[in-house]
User: Which sequence fits this backbone?
């Protein structure tokens, strides 16, 4: 996973989430180590979440972790608290602000699940194309049979 892919994943997950439970301003900078290394921030203000690929100098907390751990948190497989207790995530600053992200994660997971369900219900483009191709092939076979029958009839 690249840095850009990680930022887009986190952005897609959290910007569609509901942050109404968080009634304060929260600015979290993520410093990603290893794969997808880089820094970006997540800001919660007025119950809306914004994710941008920049450092946030007036942040409340810095969260230092890996792309895999952050992805698990965004997917709802892991909480910030669990990752911190397991030693997979470190914080610098107001750690309590980082734990507020756990209140959003569950809702983010539901939002992702709704998108996934909607995609399952939509017909696949490949299936439409295959059906169209099969229909054309059937039409060609029928046309060939008709032409062959007409040719036989004409020769009699």
Assistant:
């Amino acid at each position: 996973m690249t840095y850009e892919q990680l930022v887009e994943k986190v952005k897609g997950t959290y910007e569609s989430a509901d942050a109404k439970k968080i009634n304060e301003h929260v600015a979290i900078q993520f410093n990603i180590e290893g794969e997808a290394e880089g820094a970006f921030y997540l800001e919660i203000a007025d119950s809306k979440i914004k994710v941008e690929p920049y450092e946030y100098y007036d942040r409340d907390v810095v969260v230092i972790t890996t792309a895999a751990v952050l992805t698990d948190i965004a997917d709802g497989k892991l909480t910030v608290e669990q990752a911190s207790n397991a030693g997979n995530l470190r914080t610098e600053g107001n750690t309590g602000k980082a734990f507020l992200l756990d209140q959003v994660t569950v809702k983010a997971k539901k939002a992702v699940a709704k998108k996934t369900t909607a995609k399952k219900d939509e017909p696949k483009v490949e299936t439409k194309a295959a059906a169209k191709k099969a229909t054309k092939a059937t039409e060609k076979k029928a046309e060939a049979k008709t032409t062959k029958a007409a040719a036989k009839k004409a020769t009699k």
User: Anything to note?
Assistant: Residues 105-126 have pLDDT under 50 and may be disordered. The first helix runs from residue 3 to 14.
